[in-house]
Amino acid sequence: MLLPEFCEELFYFSNINLFESMFKNYLEKVNNYNILKTLKWLKGLNLRYNIKQIKNLQYLNLNNYQLISFPNLNLPNLQELYLQYNQLTAIPKLNFSNLKYLFLNDNQLTTIPDLNFPNLEYLNLCRNQLTSIRLNLLNLQQLYIFNNQLTEFSNLNLPNLQYIDLSNNLLTKIPNLNLSNLQRLDLSNNQLTEQSKEYLRSLKINKLYL
Fold this sequence. Notes:
Order of helices and strands: EHEEEEEEEEEEHE
Radius of gyration: 20 Å
CATH class of the largest domain: Alpha Beta
CATH superfamily of the largest domain: Ribonuclease Inhibitor
Helix content: under 10%
Number of helices: 2
Strand order of the largest sheet: 3-4-5-6-8-10-11-12
Structural class: mainly beta
Number of strands: 12
């Protein structure tokens, strides 16, 4: 029996173990795990061995599963990872060389480790509990960190960044920015000094929100 044929029976399950299971043949063919959206009560998912069978997986949605720790994933071809609306407080150092889109918003993150995602283009960290941040992502184009508790950000190496939203934080000053491709910057609802605002206006960013 294939997984989709009995998903309705799993609707109320809170923990599912798929290691060394009868789904091996199915997992070799599956292209995304959107099927998990139907398991609204799921809190634990063990893919211990089957994860080796889905190394071609490109899309994984684990939104709103009340996860408190980051899954141990070995998915070298993953391009999109959705972990929104969980209870994550930290994430380990990860190496997803093909990841392009990462959604970590609406968790309880307080820090972000060095991220080794050379192809990442989109990162959403909004509505967490971050107080500072450092990022070295050479291909990142869009960054969302609004509704955190940021008091500073000074270690950003984002040469291709085009859009950044830092609104609704606790920033009072802005360091010298080396963001040559930046087109839109949102710093509204912070506590910026007049000196910082003047500096930002001098950058002549196309869309600047203070």
